[in-house]
Design brief:
single chain, 112 residues, five-stranded mixed β-barrel
């Protein structure tokens, strides 16, 4: 059996609590910023993400637990842990700690 690992590539990152200005949670998550107005990907657990196809969009809520490499970080939610790749431009000068929960909106990249 071939073992597949995966890395979640961060295309956007939101820090802080789930509800932010411009975000409405009325059963169907919708963003009211410039551009598209409509349903967005539902929250996904790391366990669920393992069964999704390559390049699927995911929304994870959990903790950035450690830095593993230049852009590679350990991330944990209630279902497990994985690695996430976060480009420097998405940090936007913010300090992140393992104690806080973060929302990651990302594209799934399966690595063999």
């Amino acid at each position: 059996m071939k073992k597949t690992s995966f890395v979640i590539l961060i295309s956007a990152i939101s820090f802080g609590v789930l509800a932010k200005p411009g975000f409405v949670n009325s059963g169907q998550e919708t963003y009211f910023n410039d551009g598209f107005r409509g349903p967005t990907p539902a929250l996904t657990s790391i366990e669920q993400a393992k069964s999704l196809h390559d390049d699927a969009w995911v929304v994870l809520v959990g903790h950035v637990i450690k830095q593993v490499g230049h852009k590679l970080y350990g991330f944990r939610d209630s279902s497990g842990s994985t690695y996430v790749e976060i480009d420097d431009k998405y940090w936007m000068g913010q300090t992140v700690s393992p104690e806080k929960k973060y929302v990651l909106r990302a594209k799934l990249k399966k690595m063999e």
